[in-house]
Design brief:
Length: 364
């Protein structure tokens, strides 16, 4: 092999992203041997075709894989190498969860003197409420509060609220702590999401708060610590208080409406009505493909557009066999709630009709 085909350790290090000292270490450990070593100077040289292996080695080490595991992956076929990486990720996640739980126990102990109990209720009931409310969150790195759940407590009640700006969901639960003082804060949505598995399997949960976060104390299981979100939550109560009056109300079976929405592949959904039906209409206004759902309609006919990603979760989380849709016009939020239970309410923002939509004959 000619000298022109070899790279010095410095050049090779620059191209693969490893330092020269790291390359010497990996050569001494047998992970990545140089192509040649000058017998006089001891200088190490590498080939072009060793770059891929060096880059893979670096990436495996960057995810915290041990050197023996790295060597195993480098020497294996593709399937076994992938399995080695997956096993490592599983181990890391298991250890991270263990650390999180231990840290939650430590912080709970440290904050014990300032602990305040704000609610006590059924674990499965709280899990269901959290799942419903989390559908109205969004992961926005610029507005962290949109990924959180606003928790409010008072004597005998616990209210959960979330909003992604296009939708707002709120649910009130009955608590067994009648002496709870008024309290409110926004809690990290991911922390709540990680508690769901244990909550579903816990008969009772006590909700305690400190200056540093909210703790879910699960009977027979470890505690879950939920961090606070520092940004202020939107003043949703003022917004609700200033909503225009409802002009039309539609009551329709929840499962029937969900099935109709699932038959539409468009990003936007067009809802119309007459005095007997709620109609899920084709995006291009082709009435031959209308899906008519028998419904109880009070008030004027409706003609409103929604984003599927906004409307469908609001319907799917509604409690009960029938859902109530309250409309306030084409540009005002619509309210989605159960026809027989009022503890979960979701507001859904409509959207403008596409420009190529027919402007006449919108309603059935």
């Amino acid at each position: 092999m000619s000298d022109a085909e070899l790279m010095s350790i410095g050049s090779f290090a620059q191209r693969c992203g490893l330092t020269a000292s790291a390359l010497r270490f990996y050569a001494d450990s047998g992970s990545l041997l140089p192509a040649e070593v000058d017998p006089v100077t001891g200088y190490r040289f590498y080939r072009e075709d060793q770059l891929a292996k060096a880059v893979l080695l670096r990436r495996l080490r960057e995810i915290g894989m041990s050197l023996p595991s790295v060597n195993s992956a480098l020497g294996a076929d593709v399937i076994d190498a992938i399995r080695t990486v997956d096993d490592h990720v599983t181990t890391v996640m298991r250890e991270a969860e263990s650390v999180r739980q231990q840290a939650a126990a430590i912080t709970t102990t440290l904050a014990e003197r300032t602990r305040l109990q704000i609610a006590r209720l059924s674990g499965p009931v709280l899990a269901s409420a959290i799942e419903q409310i989390l559908t109205a969150t969004t992961d926005d790195p610029d507005i962290a509060v949109l990924g959180g759940v606003h928790v409010e407590a008072g004597p005998g009640v616990l209210t959960l609220t979330a909003s992604d700006r296009y939708r707002l969901s709120t649910r009130t639960l009955v608590s067994n702590v009648d002496s709870a003082a008024a309290w409110a804060a926004t809690v990290n949505g991911d922390d709540l999401r990680q508690s769901l598995g244990d909550l579903r399997r816990t008969s009772s949960v006590s909700v305690d708060v400190t200056d540093h976060g909210m703790n879910l104390r699960l009977t027979g299981r470890g505690d879950h610590h939920c961090r606070f979100v520092s940004e202020p939550f939107p003043d949703y109560r003022s917004m609700l208080a200033t909503l225009p009056a409802v002009t039309s109300r539609v009551e329709v079976p929840t499962a029937t409406l969900l099935h109709a929405l699932e038959q539409r592949s468009a990003a936007r959904i067009w809802l119309c009505s007459n005095d007997k039906y709620l109609v899920v209409r084709d995006v291009h206004g082709d009435r031959s493909s209308d899906i008519e759902l028998p419904a109880r309609v009070d008030g004027p006919t409706i003609d409103v557009w929604f984003e599927m990603t906004t409307l469908y979760p609001a319907i799917s989380t509604a409690v009960g066999t029938d859902v109530l849709l309250d409309f306030r016009g084409r540009e005002q939020p619509a309210t989605v709630r159960s026809a027989d239970r009022g503890d979960l309410t979701t507001l859904v923002m409509p959207v403008a009709a596409p420009r190529d939509t027919p402007t006449e004959g919108h309603t059935p």
